[in-house]
Membrane protein
Amino acid sequence: MARKNKANEQESQIDYAAKEKENAELFDQLTNKNQEYMIKLNRRLDEANVSEERKTIIFSDMLKNILSEQANHNTARNIYGTVTDQANYLIQGKQGEVKEPVERSATWKLWLDGALLLGGMFSLITGISYYTGNTEAGLGVTTLLLNFILGGFAVMIITKYAPKPGVKGGFLKYILATTLTMAAWIMLMAFSTALIPPALNPVIPGSYTLIIGVIAFAAKWYLKRKLDIKGTLI
C-alpha cells in the first residue's frame, strides 16, 4: 500500500503540460512512418479509454526511445511490434512478438558470403552447361578466381544499399545499386576474360567447374552458420 501511495504521489507531481509539449516536439522529429505508428497507437488507446495523463507518460518514454533508435534506421514497429501488439501490452499487459532489427556482419564476412554465392552460382551454371552440351569447356583458372573476388565485392555493395525500414527512397537506391553493380560485374568479367593471355588462364574442365560450384555453395551455408553471418542476400 505504501508503494502504491508513493507512486500516486509521484504521478501527481508530474507537469503534464510540460510533458505534452515535449512529446509534441519529439513527435515532429519522427519519420512519417513512425508518426503514423504513434497516431494509430493513440487511437487504439483512446478506444480503450486510457486517460490522457497515462498516455502522456507512456508516449514520453516511447517517443524518446523511438527517436534515439531512428538514427539507426529502426522503426517503432521494429522496437515495439505491431500497433495491436503494443496496444494490447499497454492495455492488458500482453506483450506481442517484437521483431529485432537485423544486424549486418562485418564487411569481410559479407564479402566472403557474396564471393561464395556468386562465384559458386557462376561455376554451377558453367558446369551444368558443359553437361547439357551448351559449351565445350569450363572456366579459366584466373577467370574463376576473379569471378569469386569480384562477386564478393558486388554482393557487398548490393547488401549495403538493401532497403532499411523507415528510410525513404531505400528501395529505389537498392534497385539502382543492384543494376549498376551487376552490370559492372558482368563487364569486368567479360573484359578480363578477353584480355587475360591463355597461358595465365588455363581452362578447368566443365566437370571440375561443377564440383567447384557445389563446394562453394556448401562452404557458403556452412560458414554462414559457423561465422554467424547476418544481413546477407540469401
